[in-house]
Structure formats: structure tokens, C-alpha cells
Design brief:
2 copies of one chain form a homodimer. The first copy, chain A, has 286 residues and is α/β, with parallel strands linked by helices. Helices cover 40% and strands 13% of the residues of chain A. Chain A has one domain (3-283): Alpha-Beta Barrel (TIM Barrel), CATH 3.20.20.370. In chain A, β1 (14-23), α2 (27-38) and β2 form a beta-alpha-beta unit. Chains A, B: This is ChbG/HpnK family deacetylase.
Amino acid sequence: MNLAQKLGYPENTKLLIIHADDAGLAHSENQATIKALQNGSVNSYSIMTPCAWFFEMATFAKNNPQYDCGIHLTLTCEWENYKFGPVLPISEVSSLVDKNGYFYKTRADFKNNAKPSEIKKELTAQIEKALQFGIQPTHLDSHMCSIGVTPEILEIYKELGKTYNLPVFINRQFVETIRLSDEEYNYENTLLADNLLIGYFADFEKGELQKSYERALDSIKSGFNVFLLHPAFDDSEMQGITINHPNFGSAWRQIDFDFFTSNECKTKLEENKIQLITWRDIQGII
Amino acid sequence: MNLAQKLGYPENTKLLIIHADDAGLAHSENQATIKALQNGSVNSYSIMTPCAWFFEMATFAKNNPQYDCGIHLTLTCEWENYKFGPVLPISEVSSLVDKNGYFYKTRADFKNNAKPSEIKKELTAQIEKALQFGIQPTHLDSHMCSIGVTPEILEIYKELGKTYNLPVFINRQFVETIRLSDEEYNYENTLLADNLLIGYFADFEKGELQKSYERALDSIKSGFNVFLLHPAFDDSEMQGITINHPNFGSAWRQIDFDFFTSNECKTKLEENKIQLITWRDIQGII
């Protein structure tokens, strides 16, 4: 049986989770995520426990358990002026941080410095922080897919899913795109998302991000699809965070918000007979 | 000799530092502070090392040593949804934090829980963090004047000033307004600011904050005056931080920014023959 059948749908169903990453990053990100859940087509999100606006989003999560809420496991910080680091004391996970005590900017620096034992310790602490706040997480995923840089590190991620009985988001193609190792990944007994739908910088640059999203929904395949977006407002806070980083920058995030709260998006989902599912549905059958 | 004479001015000079608190708190606060230093009448500021936007402001401080930059020693977090805590591991300073690991909201909770040894350890770490970033601090001051709740705690603050050879901002009347102890404060051998100029909620509520600032400059006395303001923009980020807290809220902070970058303010300073000085000037003579 494939995932659709296990969930009670016909074999060829186009399953889709519409997932907002990066909740907790900023007030702008939180407010856009909340609106996209309440009024838009987004039906799942994940939260960054190390960030300054975690508390605001965690409060929403606790008060609104009807929405899927995952832990956006965080090991890198891509921004120039807005920095975050481990939830554990730096002295306990010093291999994860730069000279200022913040996460490395790139997956390469992370991979070249991070000790697996410290990765596991920090990510466990991130999950425990969310649990301590009263969040009932529905899944785990990985900020910047940093967890996918080597097969050994990906194993930590999979182990955490088993330990906490939570599904982990893994798309094989995505992991192998960002791989920084020649060794083989092991996908045995692993639930894999068949297709990752996500925006590309080339489309953003051409002003065709929204069109690319429409095309993605029009050409969606049967199987287990996950659409990753990053809703936020193109406001001063978000412009400050994403300065000199137009890739997934504030203008991009505003487009994500606009499209996934639009009627066009809802119509596309209906026209293409897309079946929305959640990580909670999956959690029930793994 | 009084301070004016020590600085080479006549005895009855109206000395004034125009000081922006809370840099590092938010992108909005940082940008408004920078503009108020560059284009306005503000000539000194202090930075909160535990906050998410510390890095942005610390980078500005490092690149612009011509402006006074103090360490805004932080032991309380007054906001509802935007939280911060110690720069040290929570396990080392557990008396300073609530059950979620954040600073207490009120001076009373801080006073009732904080161990003096942990206060000293945390504040030392905040100063060391700024030094490690390459900031050359000109003074120390205290967020919410939390350091003034008891004479014993105020002593820690004064000691830190001696250890780091930095002037500390103390206004006797201000300290005794927020006192939470019956014991006597000791001001021997302490440089005291004669007058604190600051906005009051009653004036803000009446829509007369700007007028109260004009009046304060018109009636300024000779001696060592410090004007404390909190420049920021009344934008979405700042509204999110100061939600349900109009006292020093985002609308208030916008008025602070507007007035202290206005020509009216510059004219008042000239008309009243106010002599601007900095903490760096004072640092040179203590």
C-alpha cells in the first residue's frame, strides 16, 4: 500500500501538505504564517526554537493545536545582520558555532565543523524546549536542510524522529542536491516525500514566482507532495533580516503569503483535485 | 570643582547628554537610533547584549566609534510576546529567569528571585560579550534601572564601573523612585547625574509628550542632565514587541525619534544655551 492508500484514499491521489517554514524567525513571519493558516491554504508549519520570536509563535501553537506544528530543527543561520545560535550553552556545542557564538551561515561551514554528538545534543534540546512550552509537535523538519549534508548527519535526524515518534520530512532529491559527501545515503524503512515543490531563484528574478507556483500545482503528480513556502511581509523587519539575500528574501516571502492566501491558489487546488493532508495524518499511521 | 568645571566649562553650565536606550532590542530601534545619531540631536546610546538585534547594532558601534556607546545592562524583559534572557547559560544564572528561561518582567520579581552573585556573573558576561565583539564602551547603564532595586544590587553596578573603568549612569531620584528596599543607598564617591529628563505616561496619554520634551529643555537647570529616550519607528515589528504596553510603546518611541531629529529640538538646545557632553568626555576625567 502506498501512503494514499494507507490514509484511505485511492492509489493515485495527489496528496499535498502546504507547509510554511521559519515560524518563530520574526514577528513578520509569525503574523503572515498565522494569517496564511487561518485564511489561506497553508495547513502545516514548523517553528524555530532558537529564534527571538519563538515565544510568540509557541503561544499561538499551544492555543491552536488544530494546526500541524513541527519543529524546524535549526543548525545554520543564513542572514547577515540577524543572528541566532544554539538553545544549549555554547560551551556544550562549540562545534556548531562561529567565533561570535552564532550558527554558521553555510551548510559547508556547518558540515566542516559540527561534531555529530553535539548536533544530536542540540537538536534534542530544541525538541525538548518546544515540548516544555507545551507544544505537541506533529513532525520534524530541517532549516536549510542542513541535516542532509552527510549520510551520518541525516541518520541523527531519522533517529530523532524514531525517539519522539514523529515523522521527519525527507525528500530524497532535495537531500541529494545539497549533499556534501560522497557516501551513500540509506533510505531503508524511511518515509520519503515523493516530490518537493518549492520556488526557484531564477523564477523570482524573472518576476515569475507566482506563475511558477501555479504551474507547480497544475502539473502536480500523484503521490506524496510537499510544498515548502516562507510566508512573511515585505516590511522593514523582514527587509532588515534578509538584507543582501534576495533568495528567499522579504519580497519573495510577500509573494508566498499573497499566493497562498489567494483565491487563485484555492481554485488551483480544486481544479487539480489535490488532496490536502497533514503531518498529523501521517503521524497516525507511521 | 563640579563636573562642568572639570570639563572646562563655567560652573553654571547646563550640561546635557541626549541618550538613546535599548539599541539592539529590534531592527526598528537600531535604525531609528542610527538615524537619530547621524541626523538628530542624540549623542549617546547604549546597547542590549542579550537581544536578537545586538549583532546589527554592535557592527554599527564597531564601525562608528565616534559615537558614545554604552552597555545597557539587562536583567528584566518587560514585553509580552518578545522575550530575551541571559547571555550566560541558564543553569549558571537560574535565579535570574522565569520558568521559560527568560528574564522576569518586573523589577519586583527580579528583586525577589535574583542572587547577587548571579547578577554580577551575568552582567560581567554582558560586558565581556560587547568587548569580544570589538565594542569600546564609553559607559554602563541599566535597562529599566533594575540594578537600582536595592542598595546591595546597586553596589554591583558601581563595582562593575570601577572594574572596567567606565562611568555608570546613576540619578539618585530615579533610583529611589524604583527602590524596593528600606535600606539606605550609599552615594559616597559616586558621580551622580543631577537631573534625569524623561517622558511620563500622563503626558503621552494626553498627547503632550513632545510638548513635555520642549518644556523640559526650556526649564533645564545648570548641572549634569541626562535625557533618556527610546527612538524607534511605530512599525509592525515595534508594535509587536510593545503590544499591550503603551508605556514606552511604539507610538511613544516614534515621537521620541521625531522630536530628537527635529529642528525644533536643535533650536531649543541653542536657545537655552545647553552644552552637549558625552559619557566619553566624563570617562576621561573620572
